[in-house]
Amino acid sequence: MAATTEKTGLIKTFLIKINKMGYKSDAQRKAVHASRAENKSAAPKKEFPEIKKKNEGKFTAWVEKNMPGKSTCAAASKVMKNTKKYKPAVVKMANYANNFGCKKK
Q: Taking the domains of the chain in order of start, what are their residue ranges?
């Protein structure tokens, strides 16, 4: 008899700990998470980050000067593998190149 009451006590404490998320019921939890998912899908799309005219071709020129014979995408990958070795400006340009210019379709 004591083992049974001990098990029910453990189950009750477990359920109390689970419910500490602030939801009064499982239905309330589902409704909150469903509304959060709707809000994420309804978010406006961000605009494509454009490069300023004065910065166009900077990374390509840097690659030709510092990594002759490498393609821009290969150089961008190499820079992103070892970001501590390169200046922050070069890392930013390489990151942009990787994200927006080096995608296979």
A: 2-41, 53-101
